[in-house]
Amino acid sequence: xxxxxxxxxEIIIKPTKLVSDSPSNILLAETNRxxxxxxxxxxxxxxxxxxxxADSPRGRIALMSGVASGRxxxxxxxxxxxDGCLTCRSCEAVCPSNVAYGQLVDxxxxxxxxxxLSPLEDKTAIQKSWLRVIVEKEFIAKPTRFDALRxxxxxxQKLGLQRLLNKSGLLKKTKLATLNxxxxxxxxxxxxxxxxxxxxxWSKIYFPIGKPRGExxxxxxxxxxxxxxxxxxxxxxxxxxxGYTVHVPPMQTCCGALHQHGGDTKTTAQLAxxxxxxxxxLNLHAIITTTSGCxxxxxxxxxxxxxxxxxxxxxxxxxxxxEDIKITPLQYEIMVHDPCTLRNVLHSSxxxxxxxxxxxxxxxIPLAGNDQCCGAAGTYFLDQPVMAKxxxxxxxxxxxxxxxxxxxxxxxxxxxHISSTLRNTNSEIEVLHPVTLLARQMNMLS
Length: 446
Ligand code: SF4
Ligand code: SF4
What we know:
5-stranded mixed β-sheet; about 50% helix; alpha/beta; Rossmann fold; Fumarate Reductase Iron-sulfur Protein, Chain B, domain 2; binds iron/sulfur cluster; 4 domains
């Protein structure tokens, strides 16, 4: 094991003065809660791979403390160890001192983004590419723009251009090549609860079939809005069949997780405000999320809004109305991948298993290594592709050695990361959301 303290002589250049004392003091106070017991180390995916203290939660906290107090500079080695963190929060879930690691790493990234006094060569380590700035600002933060892209991407896929570009190697090993490989089949939004009509975007309201049981809101997200319309459609269908009216407020926006993990606190706060306003004007029993990464972010808005946020599987497990629903049996093995945010933040990983037992004949089993992140982790698979692939490889082996017909997971990032890698191994295992599979067995038309 390499002690992170052994790194300090190498990375000390001069004490760094931070622009504002306040955020660094907040950071320092939280790092002081760590008693360096090391109980989190075996749970950290990056530490398990590198066996370097600087890639462990304890080591990263020591580095954050060093930077916040000005003892070490915010240089490229520091950035490398912080950016190597998946923000999976497995360490937080087992910490006996309740160190708020997720908050610590986000605050550190905010400091990194705000730091004006770091040496020039280090600035390049924290600077984002122009393409990323445009995508985050003009699409992720304005997700309705994805609606305009949907038809274009469907056409692109229909013509076989996605496959052609993958095969051609024209994009080489760029981030665009990764995105092109990962792009799932694009679906259109449903327009009504009773027919499989499609539209450019979702309707404001979907009325229930049969006895009304309550009013819920559906959160669409940004990437999921484009890449996981199938799950949104399935969720509306299942909720309507059970008697729930589903509201899809058009004013809603991205949850802000990508901006928060990138240190952009201003945009994060703006997006949170817009979502709270969009949903709070309706009288809802619950705000339903189908992507655990978004759900985790919404659940930590620190507003009354957050108490209503619930993952779709958890909501459906507790919902009434199942006695009238006919579900077609499925005599197959269904493996379940637990996303980190569902397990460590929402504490809801048991619900997809319980929900899928509603399908007669289905054998629902956990994927081996479910306590470890798959490497998708927001944009981690793009920024740290080597570690992301290493983290996924054991899961792919386990899947290829199994009898599973389906892998279900409740986070679109995990779905895209796992399914594109599985496809490369010629696997026929279908990767989808548990509710999409359930809706199919409830005879949803598309
Ligand atoms: S388990 Fe908590 S207190 Fe112990 S080293 Fe890890 S972060 Fe620090
Ligand atoms: S959030 Fe995950 S990757 Fe980061 S230090 Fe904690 S356990 Fe390790």
